């Protein structure tokens, strides 16, 4: 349900960047990351759509098949896709310190490629595909500084997700350093993203000739860091559009429409 909505919002956001007023941002109270050179307006309310794909590694896998506990599973390929749609409320408590809270919906699909596992059974296992959705919430802080037209930020975020399809949870710490350059019509930046994620699932898995068996899986990212690039433009004196893309072992896209006041 979230993914068609995310695709639609993405198309609308890119169309908005073509509006001429997107390059009319000159509010001296604008966010430095939105092209301003003074202090940002203290409050912000934003709507963000976010999507990422990455490889996971198995921290643990229990599958209710006799003899499976002796199978080597640590090197099994695991693919993950996560999409979220959330609100963010933030406040600049100091010129260099911003605090924020987020809440919204999340969809996640994780595939453990069991089809290549040799179990000694007279058949091949199907891949374990776990599709889930639920509520995601959390918060964090951003520290910022600037000189001339350059700025640097460091954001630390913690989130949890209560999943509704399986008995599961997702917890993540995210660290995002960025270095950017302000322009008269917006800003651009480069940076990196670090994630420390633990994803847990319990459920049942259908095995040929045996039927449903219980499983429990614990997952984490295979590579902690990825690179990113981003840009922003003001749609009005108060509306800011932010676009960001990640590359490397983890790929992500972020689109955010923010109102500052």
Provide a compact summary of the structure.
With 261 residues, the protein is mainly beta.
What does the model show?
- The chain has 261 residues and is mainly β.
- The protein has a single domain (2-260), classed as Beta Barrel (Lipocalin).
- Helix content is 6%, strand content 64%.
- It is built from one helix and eleven strands.
- The chain has one helix spanning 2-16; strands spanning 43-63, 78-94, 97-112, 128-147, 150-163, 167-183, 186-207, 211-221, 225-234, 239-247, 251-260.
- Strands 1, 2, 3, 4, 5, 6, 7, 8, 9, 10 and 11 form an eleven-stranded antiparallel sheet that branches.
- A hairpin with a 3-residue loop joins strand 7 (186-207) and strand 8.
- The longest helix has 15 residues, at 2-16.
- The two termini are 32 Å apart.
List the helices and strands and how they pair.
Blueprint: H1 2-16, E1 43-63, E2 78-94, E3 97-112, E4 128-147, E5 150-163, E6 167-183, E7 186-207, E8 211-221, E9 225-234, E10 239-247, E11 251-260
Antiparallel strand pairs: 1-2, 1-8, 1-11, 2-3, 3-4, 4-5, 5-6, 6-7, 7-8, 7-9, 9-10, 10-11
CATH class value: Mainly Beta
Shape verdict: elongated
Task: Return Rg in Å.
Answer: 21 Å
Instruction: Estimate the mean pLDDT confidence.
Output: 83
For the record, the count of structural domains works out to 1
Distance between the termini: 32 Å
User: What is the chain-wise order of helices and strands?
Assistant: HEEEEEEEEEEE
- Determine the fraction of residues in helical runs and give it as a percent range: under 10%
Question: Any guess at the CATH architecture?
Answer: Beta Barrel
Put simply, the count of helices is: 1
Quote the CATH topology: Lipocalin
Q: Detail the poorly predicted runs.
A: 5-37
- Give the percentage of residues in beta strands: over 45%
**Structural class designation:** mainly beta
Query: How many E strands?
Result: 11
For the largest beta-sheet, the strand count, sense and barrel status come to: 11 strands, antiparallel
